[in-house]
Write a structure and sequence with these properties.
Structural class: alpha/beta
Oligomer: single chain
Radius of gyration: 17 Å
Number of strands: 9
């Protein structure tokens, strides 16, 4: 069994963040470990408060894992402060690692800033160059690339800009556009499109966290980048299709649908 590490924030309602990452790792038959960067007061209706973990504690968590256990892949999610980002980058560089997926979590669906505006430059400078793949949605890709994205062609232009910042691969998620859900993967030379049906549901809490964690798990399990993304897309589409209507807002996706129904 491979060991996967998530470095992200905690979601008290369990649909996104660390909780979604661990569920996704388990669904992909890898052992999940975590470094918590922040604790959120969160429900299906939104994020109401955030308490960041001291960077010294973040450093200690990373060191505790790497000095004891082999890590076959890493997913980085919510890293809200500049010092948090610098600490993660500096600490990870001390240890051999690969299969690093950076999901640039910036703003919650309810509009809460999960990445402080002044920390965006640090994310670009310190984490993107370390990434095997970065997985922004359209609003996040707009923030990173500094351009508006309203079409597939815009997505390709933004992908080129983001790729120039250092990651090996860029996956821009097109879920915010109309029509089919089209994601664009860029390797610095070629583009590959991943198309999935658009599912009519409000229950999309944690989709970005889940997709990036699935990609990390697939890479850790030895799949190449195209297999990892395609398999992750299939997984998240199924999870959304069978999502839960809990709470008063957008509910979480079903991370274990395939496991629960494999014998039925």
């Amino acid at each position: 069994m491979k060991n996967l590490l998530t470095i992200a924030g905690s979601d008290s309602c369990g649909g996104a963040g660390i909780q979604a990452d661990i569920k996704t790792f388990s669904a992909h038959k890898v052992y999940g470990m975590s470094v918590i960067t922040a604790v959120t007061a969160q429900s299906t209706q939104g994020v109401f408060a955030v308490q960041d973990i001291d960077p010294k504690m973040i450093k200690k968590q990373i060191e505790a894992v790497f000095e004891d256990i082999s890590v076959h892949g890493i997913k980085i999610g919510m890293v809200s402060r500049t010092q948090t980002i610098k600490t993660i980058a500096k600490t990870l560089k001390k240890y051999p690692h690969n299969n690093l997926v950076v999901d640039p979590v910036m703003i919650s669906k309810s509009g809460f800033d999960l990445l402080q505006p002044e920390a965006k430059a640090a994310l670009i400078e310190y984490l993107l160059p370390m990434a095997t793949i970065v997985t922004p949605n359209l609003p996040e890709a707009e923030e990173i690339s500094g351009m508006a994205i309203t079409s597939l062609e815009d997505m390709k232009i933004a992908a080129r800009k983001i790729h120039s910042m250092g990651p090996k691969y860029v996956l821009i998620k097109g879920g915010h556009l109309e029509g089919e859900a089209v994601d664009i993967l860029f390797d610095g030379t070629e583009f590959k499109s991943y198309i999935s049906e658009r599912i009519a549901t409000k229950n999309t809490h944690g989709t970005g966290c889940t997709l990036s964690s699935a990609i990390a798990a697939n890479l850790g399990n030895g799949k190449d980048i195209h297999e990892a993304v395609e398999s992750a897309k299939t997984y998240i589409t199924t999870a959304i299709k069978h999502s839960f209507s809990i709470g008063k807002g957008p509910g979480p996706v079903h991370h274990f649908y395939q496991l629960y129904h494999q014998d039925t």
